[in-house]
């Protein structure tokens, strides 16, 4: 059927649905089914037309009408991390992959820059930090910085800072995703330089066993925050069949959920950094156990579990 004929046959009904809202649940459901059927047809035969865009917006309005007064279950808090967040990980697995690749490449850039430019390390980490760490290495306690603050105050400061940074990364994605990539760049460069510094001092293995006790979850969460920023920015750049405004609203909502979902992870990472990492004399087997458990959890929760849920839903 040609598009003009399709529009002519249904335009009056669509206009009625748009201009004459109803509250009866059965009537709303019937309208929603009708519009989604028409939308599916339009997507199939006129995927890039204004008709498809219009129907997509009308379907979204009906969907909101159905669910805006839905009573939330008491276990909504648990459901969010058990189902909703993993589903978002699966939905935006491509953005997660891009964020990981960006961050990994920027880390390598940090390593190479620190290796071939003697001044680069101090430029990125600061003279004060480098001088302090050099003094700690000379004293035989290279990771003494983690013992220099009271545990609880350190925990509060680190948790608040990491949550703030993740939200900044997410919000900066509104600048056409470039903002999120920039923050991945700065964090990746810093991490690469930081690790090269310890490896250049012959403390590479020890730095992994100490720093990555908290770093595994913390860095993974930064990458997810970068993906949240990409979700926001891409929704503005690539609206697909949605209007640009509707796409932006959806991207903002989903990206914010990803960012909020990181809060417990940052709290766990801050707990490790404040109360565990400072014990640099702990047995190697214990350090490896904590590190491996953190890595296993992140891989399972972000990749394996979401794919399992997706297969079940399918």
Automatic annotation (TrEMBL):
Transmembrane segments: 96-116, 163-184, 196-213, 219-238, 258-276, 282-304
Keywords for this protein: Membrane, Transmembrane, Transmembrane helix
A Pfam family annotated for this UniProt entry: SpoIIM
Superkingdom, natural source: Bacteria
PANTHER family named in the record: SLR1478 PROTEIN
Protein name, UniProt field: Stage II sporulation protein M
Organism: Mucilaginibacter ginsenosidivorans
């Amino acid at each position: 059927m040609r598009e003009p004929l399709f529009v002519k046959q249904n335009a009056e009904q669509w206009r009625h649905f748009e201009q004459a809202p109803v509250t009866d649940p059965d009537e709303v459901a019937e309208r929603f089914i009708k519009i989604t059927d028409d939308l599916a047809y339009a997507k199939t035969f006129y995927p890039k037309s204004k008709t498809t865009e219009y129907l997509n917006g009308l379907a979204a309005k009906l969907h909101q009408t159905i669910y805006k007064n839905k009573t939330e279950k008491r276990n909504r808090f648990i459901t969010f991390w058990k189902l909703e967040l993993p589903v978002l990980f699966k939905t935006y697995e491509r953005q997660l992959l891009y964020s990981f690749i960006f961050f990994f490449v920027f880390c390598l850039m940090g390593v190479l820059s620190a290796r071939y430019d003697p001044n680069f390390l101090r430029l990125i980490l600061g003279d004060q930090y480098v001088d302090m760490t050099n003094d700690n290495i000379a004293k035989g306690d290279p990771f003494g910085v983690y013992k220099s603050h009271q545990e609880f105050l350190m925990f509060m400061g680190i948790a608040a800072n990491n949550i703030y940074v993740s939200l900044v990364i997410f919000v900066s994605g509104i600048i056409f995703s470039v903002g999120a990539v920039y923050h991945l760049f700065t964090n990746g460069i810093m991490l690469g330089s930081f690790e090269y510094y310890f490896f250049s001092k012959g403390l590479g293995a020890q730095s992994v066993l100490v720093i990555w006790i908290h770093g595994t979850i913390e860095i993974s969460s930064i990458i997810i925050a970068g993906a949240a920023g990409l979700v926001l920015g891409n929704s503005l750049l690539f609206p697909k069949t949605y209007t640009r405004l509707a796409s932006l609203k959806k991207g903002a909502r989903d990206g914010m959920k990803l960012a909020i979902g990181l809060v417990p992870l940052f709290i766990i990472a801050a707990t490790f950094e404040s109360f565990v990492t400072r014990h640099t004399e702990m047995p190697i087997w214990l350090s490896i156990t904590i590190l491996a458990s953190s890595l296993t959890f992140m891989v399972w929760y972000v990749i394996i579990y979401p794919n399992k849920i997706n297969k079940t839903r399918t």
